[in-house]
Amino acid sequence: MNIKNYLFSFLLTIVNSALSFSQLESASIEGPTQGTSYHITYLDTKHRNLQPEIEKLLIDFDFSVSTYNPYSIITRVNQNDKDVKLDNYFKTCFKKAKEVWKNTNGAFDPTVLPLTNIWGFGPGKKTEIEKSKIDSILEFVGFNLIELKRNKIIKKDSRVALDFNAFAQGYSVDVVSKFLNKKGIKSYIVEIGGEVFAKGTNLNGKIWTVNLEEPKDNKEAINNTIAIARLNNSAISTSGNNRRYFIENGIKYAHHLDPKTGYPAKNNLLSVSLFGNDCITTDSNATGILVMGLEKAKLFLQNHSELEAIIIYSDEKGNYQYYKTNGIKNILEF
């Protein structure tokens, strides 16, 4: 994902009380990354400053899978550099993308980068949209046209280009979370560009919470809170059409592109929030659901009980309607 600083902000309820948690200290760090920002709070008995190591992780991650970095691994793959060496970040993204592409019947497809560019939602410059141009690009859009074999990328068409930005921020949350686990941190909350994973409790002994925002068109500020989500060792990812869009000739075009048509997805979904065990899974599937539409999304979620979801969509009168999986009542407080 490029800039996904969207649909909710998280509540960091840090109570500086040392009565019952005398050995714990709360550390909060933040900074820029991946065209957005990160916010991390963790409780540490050793009172360590882990920010330099975390930022080094994020720099290495960006060097692997950022299409905005001209020297990254993914950029070199897209340029058909035969000498590029794939790292674990790239290979993990590729394998997860292939899995989600299959599970969503192609609604999620990381080969849409050329389309993303001409629509102005990627590193490339927006161009005038013409059906003939879209059709010509669709000839080399499709995850069936590219494979990972023996640590090498094999393309059936050299013009195929990858874009992991739809879930890269979610995966980077997992990378930081695993780093904190290795450091022996048992309570933390990690947020990068709106994607969140939380483990344990805050200093007050309560489960970490995040705010779920109203999916109202707003490119800059935070929207009103419609629900509070409790994250009990779980991830949350939200995809919506209210942050990255443009209006041309009175028509709104959002950044979620349908790989089958080459145009922004046309349905009444406004936002999808998924809860699961890791952010790479919730982030990638949330993108696919937003493209596939409500009825297909219901069938998909029925077959993926490992995910809990709340989908906000508009009815014929423009009012908010909600679809919620059965377990969402244990997570959200409206």
Question: How is this structure best described in words?
Answer:
Mean pLDDT is 90; it is low at 1-22. The strands form 4 sheets. The chain has an 8-stranded antiparallel β-sheet with strand order 2-3-6-7-10-13-14-15. Strands 1-8-9-16 form a 4-stranded antiparallel β-sheet, with no helix packed on it. A two-stranded antiparallel sheet has the order 4-5. The protein is of the alpha+beta class and 334 residues long. It is built from 8 helices and 16 strands. The protein is globular, with a radius of gyration of 20 Å.
Describe the structure concisely.
The chain has 334 residues and is an alpha+beta fold. The chain has helices spanning 51-65, 73-78, 88-103, 113-118, 131-138, 168-182, 279-292, 294-302, and strands at 10-11, 25-33, 36-44, 146-149, 152-155, 187-192, 195-199, 208-213, 225-231, 234-240, 245-248, 251-254, 269-276, 308-314, 320-324, 332-333. The longest helix has 16 residues, at 88-103.
In N-to-C order, the SSE pattern is EEEHHHHHEEHEEEEEEEEHHEEE
What percent of residues adopt helix (DSSP H or I)?
Answer: 25-40%
Outline: globular
The biggest sheet amounts to: 8 strands, antiparallel
Residue share in β-strands? 25-35%
Class from secondary-structure proportions: alpha+beta
What is the spatial order of strands in the main beta sheet? 2-3-6-7-10-13-14-15
Distance between the first and last residues' Cα: 28 Å
Question: What is the mean pLDDT?
Answer: 90
Low-confidence stretches: 1-22
How many helices? The count is 8
The gyration radius over C-alpha positions equals 20 Å
Let me know the number of strands.
16
